[in-house]
């Protein structure tokens, strides 16, 4: 599948570029190489993405190769890191796509084994990639029930009165929601978990209770 076919398939109305040859330069987007490096936190080796599509809060990044290999994943990851640094609120689908055939490899939010989407084997329309994030918001009933049971057991062991548990959990969640908002995080991932851990490590019980109470 060539470049033109990919644009038509995903949707040319969502195709975004900022340099003459139709590529998307993150240096151009940031304003300079220095500003890009500062935003990302390191110096990306690659900053000119082949194809970028955007609809609402979802962005699709496509890097084309005649025949992509594992080493090309690092290049795609550079683009993803730049996208995240410059557009913090965007949800990202990252794709490696062959021009010699229809083979693709797709990731959601991060380019690693955990976020690989093995069932995505054919390049699709933009609406499909938007829906991938909507599907993710649906609760897994069994998982919710198990987590609720585990939480209830934990509160029981901590001698939290059964009549107060719902209020206790609700208040704690409000505090957590407000804290995440202040941090500026847009999703729950390992980076956010580590950030929260770092904050709570330097707080004693009295300080933590005061923070929850103020919320």
Summarize the structure.
By secondary structure, the chain is of the alpha+beta class.
Question: How would you explain this protein's 3D organization?
Answer:
By secondary structure, the protein is α+β, with helices and mostly antiparallel strands. The protein has helices at residues 3-10, 26-30, 33-40, 72-86, 126-136, 141-157, 165-183, 190-201, 205-214, and strands at residues 15-16, 24-25, 48-49, 51-55, 58-65, 91-98, 104-108. The strands form two sheets. A five-stranded mixed sheet has the order 1-4-5-6-7, with helices on both faces. It is elongated, with a radius of gyration of 21 Å. It starts with a helix and ends with a helix.
**What kind of sheet is the major sheet?**
5 strands, mixed
Strand-pairing-aware structural class: alpha+beta
Number of separate strands: 7
Shape: elongated
Order of strands across the widest beta sheet?
Answer: 1-4-5-6-7
Distance between the termini: 53 Å
Number of helices in the DSSP assignment: 9
Percent helix, as a range, is: 40-55%
H and E string: HEEHHEEEHEEHHHHH
Give the radius of gyration: 21 Å
State the low-pLDDT regions, or none: none
Mean pLDDT metric: 91
Percent strand equals 5-15%
